[in-house]
Hints:
Layout: E1 7-10, H1 16-22, H2 26-33, E2 37-43, E3 46-55, E4 60-68, H3 77-93, E5 97-103, H4 107-115, E6 119-124, H5 127-131, E7 136-138, E8 141-143, E9 146-152
Parallel strand pairs: 4-5
Antiparallel strand pairs: 1-2, 2-3, 3-4, 5-9, 6-9, 7-8
Amino acid sequence: MAHKEVEIKPATSYPYPLLLLADPEQEKVDGYLKNSDCFVATLNGQTVGVIVVQKQSEKTAEIMNLAVDESFQRRGIARKLLRYITNQWAATAYITRLIIRTGTSAPGPFMLYQQEGFDLKNVEYNYFVHHYKEPIFENGVQCRHQLIMEKVIPDPTETF
């Protein structure tokens, strides 16, 4: 069987096992899904990744959830999902500023977001301690603080 390329398309149903990898409280996920766009990455017909993005204002959107199935991580799927939102979705939605938030216990996503042009803008100390019912642990470390990052996208409608 030939190896296919990863495809990104709008979700026809929500892949909760993946969504809950990135955000373990289903109530929170359900709260933002209804006002968001959800896209999945598929490989050979299998959903292997998900990204959820929500418009916050006319030109600003926030990536609410980004997850890749653990057996498919480190293959560039998260990067492809981020680039899809940055290069295709943002242009059609006239978005010029993207926000993404991550925890301090996962250095991989933080590095990926920087590589993809996101800059650290703020830290919300003890966010995960105060806003989640159960402690979250990643890499043997309790996730406590939230890093708030942003990427500015050139406005294609502006001429210089």
